[in-house]
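TA notes. Do not distribute before section.
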Amino acid sequence: MRKHILSLCTIFTLALLLVSCGAQRKSSVSGGSLNNDGPSAREWRNGLKGKWVLNSVDREDIPAAYTIKNIFDEAPVDCFIGSVWTLPGGNYQGNIRFNAAGTLCADGASRNIIWSIYDIPNDNLHPQFQFKKLYSGEKARNVTSGYRLDLSYSDGQSLVMRMPIPLDNGTGNLVLNFSRVQD
């Protein structure tokens, strides 16, 4: 009987230890209560791995008269529609392959990127997708400029990221809507 009680206590202690050492979700204090802010940076990173096609780009709080000439210092917004974003794990060296034909678009061109999830604990911001463009012969550590997008939503098959656009009176967003490419 004593061995059974000792075995049960050991199993209970191990279970308690495993539960307490599990990954914690990002949370913050808001209005005096603890709120869960959504997926952690690790969960976002794991969920983004794979191939995504950019289906559409919507304007949010951007006046219709406001012109956006290009995004990511690369090309007009329309050139990115249909582009395939490959985001592998490991060293996080991916690429963006363009599939749009147009006057300023380079159909079939590919841009190498290094991507990651930007997250500073306790800053009350949600994790952000960030990437740097890499040109031939460049090393990622020597590239000092890049881009950050707010991670808004993902269910594993669709992904929504927001690109803040500074305006004269505040900020608007370009809303990038992706769907997963099945290999």
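Switch to the second chain here.
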Amino acid sequence: MYADDDVPDQLRRVRPADLARTTGESRARRRCVAAVSVRARLVAVAATSLLAGGCGMLDDPVKDRWESRTEFSSCGEASLAQGEEMQKQAVREIACLRRALKSGESAELKVTYPTVEGDPIREYYRLTPQARLEVYTDSTDDRYSDQKWSFAECYTPEWLAEISCEQ
């Protein structure tokens, strides 16, 4: 190791201009390389954005449909723990949907439940005035799914808690 007094001057004070002389690269060449590097990063970011958009990762038509809906009166929210059944844990909320069905009114209910791994799934039940039940499912927080929204509907549902609609 060198003591401070033993270090040659050319090693102690290396400036960009000195670096160009020592590496053989001109300052203009280094600027060009830096500019190309920035351009390459910008192109990579733009390409990734276009690719993600083309694969439908940036927009979700079902989510867009849910967010632009006309809101109905709320029957509340039910949050289920692992293994809990909706018909046992959301009795009041289901009764609210049944009343709306019988009276020809509209209503909404949000149900959140965990996957086997514990990730939350949110389902939104919408009963329309035409007695159609719409089910929007938000799986965006489920690590082991397609992480998208899905939609199903039933006409004249008989039992709201055991919905098996065609998707």
